[in-house]
Amino acid sequence: MRIQALLILVALLAPPLSPARAADDAEVKRGGYLAIASDCTACHTAPGGQPMAGGLRMASPLGTIVSTNISPSQEHGIGRYSFAQFDRAVRHGIRGDGARLYPAMPYTAYAKLTDQDMLALYAYFMTAVRPVETSPEHTRLPFPFNMRLSMAGWNILFLDSGTFVSDPKHTSEWNRGAYLVQGAAHCGSCHTPRGFLMQEKSGQPMAGSALGGWFAPNITSDAISGIGGWSVEELTTYLRTGHAPGKAQAAGPMAEAIDASLRHMNEADLRAIAVYLKSVAPVRNSADSRPAFAWGTAGDDLPSIRGVGLPGNLDEMTGPQLYDAHCASCHQSQGQGSFDGALPSLFHNAALGRSRADNLVMVILNGLRRHPDVNMPAFGHALSDIQLATLSNYLTSKWGNPQTQITAKEIGTLRAGGAPSPLLLLARGGMLLIAILLIVALVWWQYRRLSKRQPQAIDPAHTPGE
Ligand code: HEC
Ligand code: HEC
Ligand code: HEC
């Protein structure tokens, strides 16, 4: 009898204890998954460095921004951050000491995260990340951008600090996709065009944007300029593997996003992302006449170079000569790649079919290294800007979009990391005063606009034309 009573007592006591414990573990695990989906490690880890210890140098049009240590170190990291401070940093761009963060930290996207997910992220960072006792170098941007307070004005203009509101008109899959794309996975921070003050243009989500040399293409649902011609399955496969056979493969920043983040996400989430993308309001670029993946057929120009000696000045090499010397060993004489798909064909390949050659040139300059063993060498040292222009123009006219041409001068700009921000030129050109006046005018304009606007649910994809 006594034992029975004891057992009953244990049974009565146990439930409130164990489920609470289990919920904690589950929360930390969910936080870990969110950290992967949000790709915190990618930016907060230096090449070869300790996870979350910061120190990654990010080139921005305004100068180099260095990520900080967000491991739970008391002294060097965020170990002393309360939940409220953590939340202010991640969703509002305000550091523990009150200073403003630069939007290189994608808090404008993370602002969409729900309170519940923020709690899970915090639990993960405080309990499951190993503290690292080092401080990375400080960010030093040129005047006037070294004044972090200037970001306060920027935030008034551009930080839409409402969390995600699901749209009952859509399925739960679509809503999950929208939440991930707009929030954690911050696709727009690369794919949405930016305005004069580096803000994402809220009226054209996912319409394509330059990223220091690379170009994150239009991934709206448009059938010609965007991914309208991709199936949900193709998109899901691309997000998981970086390959959509006969369409595109990921290089540069997209390859990094896939390797560090997307390929670790579960299939249902990737599918939800694809389903949502297919509904993003189409944006057509008038320069595009067919989908980027739909150009070209196999073919070669080998007869034109057979028995012809190389010119004394290698800058005078022809496109077929350059292709034969550097690329044909892998991509094959007719541009057909390998049958098993490990080496892509160069026709029916978005890299050659877009109406700008940026990514084609960037991949030739920098090569392509991805796990597990996808590897293309870099040709930045081997080829001059003139040779690169000849080769790129040959490739697009032979197997891609023949209207896409690039000059040696433009290649020089890509090699140097892309076009500098007009904002920096303006500020540097002694026209700071004009910039400030402009910001004041914009704040005023935004204020007037906001005060006129009716309150509404936040759903950028469905409120175009801002
Ligand atoms: C695209 C790159 C990028 C991603 C992704 C990113 N961060 Fe950051 N983060 C930065 C940079 C850069 C800074 C420093 C900005 C500055 O100095 O103004 C920063 C600063 C911070 C800070 C302020 C720390 C301090 O005390 O200085 C916190 C907290 C933070 N990030 C947390 C996170 C979390 C959590 C995630 C994932 C949910 C994340 N970050 C994802 C780039 C990134
Ligand atoms: C760090 C920047 C970055 C982030 C974040 C990012 N992308 Fe990309 N994305 C790119 C770049 C750059 C390319 C072009 C890659 C290439 O040409 O090889 C690209 C290519 C793509 C393509 C192929 C389009 C085509 O026509 O070839 C799709 C689809 C895509 N991204 C979807 C997404 C989705 C969905 C997300 C969010 C889950 C995302 N991207 C996040 C930079 C990014
Ligand atoms: C050693 C083999 C090798 C050589 C040489 C080589 N490539 Fe590649 N190339 C690859 C591999 C591997 C990929 C990546 C395929 C993938 O992601 O699955 C690739 C991808 C590409 C892509 C697609 C990139 C994208 O962003 O979508 C282009 C374009 C390309 N190569 C052009 C060239 C050109 C031009 C040359 C000559 C200057 C060249 N390659 C030389 C192996 C090679």
Protein described:
The chain has 466 residues and is mostly helical. It folds into three domains: 26-130 and 141-158, Orthogonal Bundle (Cytochrome Bc1 Complex, Chain D, domain 2); 172-277, Cytochrome Bc1 Complex, Chain D, domain 2 (Orthogonal Bundle), CATH 1.10.760; 292-415, Orthogonal Bundle (Cytochrome Bc1 Complex, Chain D, domain 2). 43% of the residues lie in helices and 5% in strands. It contains 19 helices and eight strands. The strands form four sheets. Strands 1-2 form a two-stranded antiparallel ribbon. Strand 5 and strand 6 form a beta hairpin. The radius of gyration is 25 Å and the shape is globular. It starts with a helix and ends in a 14-residue tail after the last helix. It binds heme C (HEC) (3 copies). The site of one heme C has 24 residues, from strand 6, helix 13, helix 15 and strand 8.
Please give the count of helices: 19
CATH homologous superfamily (4th level) name of the largest domain = Cytochrome c-like domain
Proportion of beta-strand residues: 5-15%
Strand order of the largest sheet: 1-2
Q: What average pLDDT do the residues reach?
A: 87
**What's the N-to-C terminus distance?**
74 Å
Beta strands, count = 8
CATH topology of the largest domain: Cytochrome Bc1 Complex, Chain D, domain 2
Order of helices and strands: HHEEHHHHHHEEHEEHHHHHHEEHHHH
Bound molecules: heme C
Rg over C-alpha atoms, rounded to the nearest angstrom: 25 Å
Strand count, sense and barrel status of the largest sheet are: 2 strands, antiparallel
Helix content: 40-55%
Q: Which residue ranges are poorly predicted, with pLDDT under 50 across at least 5 consecutive positions?
A: 6-21, 455-466
Number of domains: 3
Name the CATH class of the largest domain: Mainly Alpha
Based on secondary structure, the structural category is mainly alpha
The CATH architecture assignment of the largest domain turns out to be Orthogonal Bundle
General form: globular
